[in-house]
Amino acid sequence: MAEQPSPDFRDLFHRGQLTIGISELSRMTGVSPRQLRYWQKKGYIIPKNEDEPGRARIYTMKMVIKAAAMSNLLQTGYTLKAAAAQVDERMRPAQTMYRVLFGRYQGFEVADDGQLLVDLGTFDPDPTQELFAKLVNDQPKFILKAKNQ
């Protein structure tokens, strides 16, 4: 049976718990808090706690990356709208990969040879099998194992 990921691991990466405030975001990106609030008003960045009016804005790492990338594009001549669209398009593959991996990740187990096997859950075409991944010479290899009932 695969070890369950620690709650800290899942909470940090899956639920957006790595956050910073608007002042830190401003310092990191060189964008004024006033400008960041404008970006939020336009819907280009969204604070994690947007549904809590009156509370200090906090941003996930995804929004930090987006704001920094938008700031860089603005400095090269993009308009705000074009910069936001370009960043969204560039982030799509990473977001898809994140959702696939964290949606499937069930934990890990250590094989008899000491190698880590990442448990990716039930193999959809055959629910009696579980899908695992491991690294062989730094390359991912996939393994199907009979599901333990």
Task: Quickly list its features.
two-stranded antiparallel ribbon, four-stranded antiparallel beta sheet, Multidrug-efflux Transporter Regulator, Chain: A, Domain 2, DNA-bd_dom_put_sf, MerR-type_HTH_dom, alpha+beta, about 150 residues, MerR family transcriptional regulator, elongated, 6 strands
Task: Write up this protein.
The chain is of the alpha+beta class and 149 residues long. The chain has 2 domains: 9-103, Multidrug-efflux Transporter Regulator, Chain: A, Domain 2 (Orthogonal Bundle); 106-146, no CATH class. It contains 5 helices and 6 strands; from the N terminus they run αβααβααββββ. The longest helix has 25 residues, at 80-104. It is elongated. It starts with 6 loop residues before the first helix and ends with a strand. The model has no long low-confidence stretch (mean pLDDT 87). InterPro entries: DNA-bd_dom_put_sf, MerR-type_HTH_dom. This is MerR family transcriptional regulator.
